[in-house]
Hints:
By secondary structure, the protein is mostly helical. It is built from eleven helices and two strands, in the order H-H-H-H-H-H-H-H-H-H-H-E-E. Helix 1 packs across helix 3 and helix 7 packs antiparallel against helix 9. The radius of gyration is 26 Å and the shape is flat. It is found in: Membrane. It holds the Pfam family Ion_trans_2. One of its GO terms (molecular function) is potassium channel activity. Keywords: Ion channel, Ion transport, Membrane, Potassium, Potassium channel, Potassium transport, Transmembrane, Transmembrane helix, Transport.
Amino acid sequence: MSRTKTAPAQAPEPTIPPKADGLRLRARLRYLYHGASPLAVRFRLAVIVIDFAIIAFFLAAPLLHSAGMVFYVVDYVIAVILALDMTGRALAHTDIRDWLKKPATWVDLFILATLMFPAWLYNFGFLRMLRLWTLLNSDFFWRTIGHKYDDTRVEEITRALAALVTFLFVATGFVYATFHDDQTVIHGYLDALYFTVTSLTTTGYGDITLPGPWGRVLSIVIMLTGITLFVRLAQTIFRPHKVRFPCPVCGLQKHDPDAVHCKACGEILCIPDEGHP
């Protein structure tokens, strides 16, 4: 009798558990947000370009609000983009709870809320310009664009300038949101910007002044803060340049570029030259 050979039973293909898919997605996002490969750098460059485009929309929002439905469509599109970016950053972070503790994360969450509920939180829209400050003070930005200038005068000047510009437009937005209903004082966003600049620089032409005690208090705050930020910017521009090189003995962080000994403890230093690391 002839026996028919039966094909051996094939083992079932292994299924990838959902948890493994999640780990793979987090590893991919971590590679894109924190990696050093050309692909990761190009990805972060694209994210930064989109960030600046979003900041430009925030800057022009008071002028574009009259566009009606078009403004809200763009607003919700930006909300989706920002939500995707924040989700990617959270998954790429090693500890999501640690990521949630960062002040920049709470700033971005509030900005996202103003985008998702523009009709209710429109008067707080001026706080969206804080995105400029968080971007230019983030490791994400300096690891991508500013890695050549890290811990140098260019980085310090950029951070100081970002603080000044951010305060200028946040204060302008606050003045506009608070006093634009009073048509005898602030007729439009340009008037609010003009008042903020003249107060911040302590020029004080007097053609536009805010009414009441709270208007005077706000003017004083703008003047004092503006002077402080201008002084900080001037210090970063004119003070002697230093590099970040921690002393192995006393821990002093910054030294002169040509320093041979630590000024605090006298330890011999070996600071790499910028052209010859």
